[in-house]
Amino acid sequence: MLNNAIEHEDLGDVVGEAEDGLGAEASIILKKCDIVLIDLLMPKQDGIETITRLQEMGYEGKFIMISQVEHKEMVAEAYSKGVEYFIHKPINRIEVISVIKKVMEHIRLERSLEGIRHTLSLFDTLPKEPPEVRTAPFLRSVLADFGILGETGSQDLIQLIEYLLKRYKNERVREFPALKDIFTDYVTYSNVEDVQREVKAMEQRIRRTVARALQNLASLGLEDYGNPKFEMYASKYFDFADVRQKMREIEQNEEVSRVRLNVKKFIFTLYIETKEHT
Description:
Elements: H1 2-8, H2 21-31, E1 35-39, H3 47-56, E2 62-67, H4 72-80, E3 83-88, H5 93-125, H6 131-145, H7 152-167, H8 179-189, H9 195-223, H10 228-237, H11 240-251, H12 263-276
Parallel strand pairs: 1-2, 2-3
Helix pairs in contact: 2-3, 6-7, 7-9, 7-12, 8-9, 9-10, 9-11
């Protein structure tokens, strides 16, 4: 009946049968069976002893136990040994089919999870990308949104943020020190000989670039106050009062700006945003 049910319902292939537990061990291990349907009471070696022996031999398949015994302690012991289901005799065809399908689903789920674990383990063994490889795309995306990616100071900003990410790698930064100190630390780290001259040049390049970012952002706001980029960046990267002032200056064609540019806020925000996206 078991044989017919398995084959008729296309549940799998019956790869062997045995008269007792001792006669089954070698065949089960050799044929790498997924599921073993085993009787509790068998000559020479009972079902629980057979399960224990198979597990000691390295068998990792599933067991479905069949017996007319209904002693609770014996059934409990069978479950404790790893039996998936316990079917009582006389067996019912529908119950057998249902139980085997449930065990098959259990096996598929385990294999799927194992596949996921294996894939994740492969990711763990891959060489880690250096920070600049991971951060550069995000940084360039933001600078492109501001329309300043082609500015000379943009490369300074990218390199500076990458340096800050390394410097504060294991720290939670609430506020940066003075900009001049940050620039000096970075230039010294970069082994530039004339530190003072390079700090001043870098500061000017970055200030011009941030000023251009504000100019472009204010122009976006004038064209469309609901522009997604304007809404996203205006109050995050700049003091909004400065953005409004810049918008008025553009409207009135003022040549001299009265905006006191907050470069430190721009750099700090860019650092925080990049860290969150790394």
